[in-house]
Amino acid sequence: MNDRPTASESTTPGRSGLRAKFTLKSNGFKLAINLAVPAGQTLAVIGPNGSGKSTLLTALAGHIAIRNGEIQMAETMVDRPKSGDWIDPVDRPIALVPQDGLLFPHLSVLDNVLFGLRQNKSGPLTKAERLERAFQSLQAVDMADATTKVPEELSGGQAQRVAVARALALQQPFLLLDEPLSRIDVGNRRNIRQALADQRPLGQVQVIVTHGRDHAITADLIMAIEDGQVTGFDTPTAMCANLPTRWIAELLNP
Amino acid sequence: MSKWSRRRGAQPIPLLIRIMAGLGLLLLLIPLAGLLLAAPWSNLAELLTDEDTLEAVRVSLIVSVSAAILSTLFGVPIAFVLARANFPGKSLLRTVVTVPLVLPPVVTGVAMLYGFGRRGLIGRTLGLELPFTTVGAVLAATIVAMPFLVLSVEGALRNTDPRFEQMAASLGARPLARWLTVTLPMIRPSILAGMVLAWARALGEFGATITFAGNLPGVTQTLPLKISLAFEQKPEQALALSLLMLAVALAVLVALRDRWVPRR
């Protein structure tokens, strides 16, 4: 097993990137991760079902603790069992888009997007500022005309778009997305990719779990996980040239 | 085609099982039919608006509504602890909470005398006068009613996806804010159902109340106590009050029908 992610040698993460080198065990499943993403870059996480992609996001978000190693977000060590470092999910500089959206069923679309803004996660905002941000991010995913709807009235794709808007509105340095485009139609995919791209010049690190080849090769870095192990970590160009495993080859070079 | 005939493809129900089910149903229906036939329909209005009836209705409403509110105030946190926390002695806590469901209410009343009575644990140390007061009747009703609320809410909490609370945490909500803005609103229907059940149980409470709080008109004499007393002196009034309580019980069942039997 190589000790350092190969990509980190060419692109050092710098002070504001994401570094994670850890192992964890969850319900008998073992996951070993080694990654580094510089500020303003996108990491696409690919791998078969059940390989540990979602578990990786769960650990980064702090909903499970790692067993060994460390997770560092910008200058902050958010999880490091050896030294006892631990930052609660509430205080991690992240925004999360879970696979099924997980919109609060008892709140309207607008209140879902306002939820995080009301918790001071993005600093104290006036009511007008919160509303402006919420509308901006709903516009970015083309859902600004559905503010009064409740999640029950949305299609799967619409719910995913609102979940993306809810995360964008927080403007956190780290954005974790679990297959955000899986149920979204082609036209809206373009909108959402644009909305995500607009965040990167601000230095946002985006970790995107995806099954889409297009989404993977347009990222800055690709990491493949198979059966809890990293089987590839490189730029898309290098990954497409090397094709470390058969599974990666089948996804990237169909 | 008769509506009793079997749907195509449905399994037949054996005759023996149908007969036993029918007999069971009769067991339930005969007393109800008897009550409805004996009821003093002609002067029902008069009997129900008579002064000491109204007094019992007033006491019953105060006691049962207060008991439902207290059950909710204490029962929802207990349900939350039972559903989410992990600690040694948790099964003991669950037993303590559910024991009034199976314990004869008279025993609850006796136990309350030794706990909250003038010479009981609390009465002796605090000098409280709880027995034979309205507050005492409320406490008795709360103890027997709270398990219904706790079980209803605990079940709902176990069925909610914990990832909603995790999501709220990732959005920056601290534990109390998560509980107030996500957990509670998501289980609101079960809290309301639990409140109605607890209220109905408190309204019908007899044994613990008469043992601990007595049968004082205007103070602790609730409808069931009034019925039992009236039966000896004015059976007509007992029948009228019984009808009233039957109507309330049916209303509760109609209000909760979707909670008891999930609709297909």
Task: Write a structural description.
- The complex is a heterodimer of chains A (254) and B (264).
- Chain A has helices at 6-10, 53-61, 109-117, 127-140, 156-169, 186-199, 213-217, 236-242, 246-252; strands at 18-26, 29-37, 42-46, 68-73, 76-80, 85-86, 94-97, 174-178, 205-209, 221-226, 229-234.
- Chain A has 254 residues and is an alpha/beta fold.
- With 264 residues, chain B is mainly alpha-helical.
- Chain B has helices at residues 15-38, 44-48, 51-84, 90-102, 105-116, 121-126, 134-159, 163-170, 175-186, 188-204, 207-212, 223-233, 235-255, 257-260.
- The longest helix of chain B has 34 residues, at 51-84.
- The radius of gyration of chain B is 22 Å and the shape is globular.
- The A-B interface holds A 61-63, 88-90, 92, 94-96, 98, 102, 104-107, 115-116, 119-121, 166, 170 and B 161, 163-164, 166-174, 177, 181-182, 185-186, 188.
Features:
heterodimer, A: 254 residues, alpha/beta, six-stranded mixed β-sheet, five-stranded antiparallel β-sheet, 9 helices, 11 strands, 33% helix, globular, disordered N terminus, B: 264 residues, mainly alpha, MetI-like fold, 14 helices
Let me know the average pLDDT of chain B: 90
What fold name stands as the CATH topology of chain B? MetI-like fold
* Share of helix of chain B, binned: over 70%
Task: Provide the structure class of chain A.
Answer: alpha/beta
The number of helical runs of chain A is 9
Question: Rg of chain B, please?
Answer: 22 Å
Write a brief caption for the model.
With 254 residues, chain A is an alpha/beta fold. Chain A is 33% helix and 24% strand. Chain B is mainly alpha-helical.
List the helices and strands and how they pair.
The complex is a heterodimer of chains A (254) and B (264).
Chain A: H1 6-10, E1 18-26, E2 29-37, E3 42-46, H2 53-61, E4 68-73, E5 76-80, E6 85-86, E7 94-97, H3 109-117, H4 127-140, H5 156-169, E8 174-178, H6 186-199, E9 205-209, H7 213-217, E10 221-226, E11 229-234, H8 236-242, H9 246-252
Parallel strand pairs in A: 3-9, 3-10, 7-8, 8-9
Antiparallel strand pairs in A: 1-2, 1-4, 4-5, 5-6, 10-11
Helix pairs in contact in A: 3-4, 3-5, 4-5
Chain B: H1 15-38, H2 44-48, H3 51-84, H4 90-102, H5 105-116, H6 121-126, H7 134-159, H8 163-170, H9 175-186, H10 188-204, H11 207-212, H12 223-233, H13 235-255, H14 257-260
Helix pairs in contact in B: 3-7, 3-10, 4-7, 7-10, 8-9, 10-13, 12-13
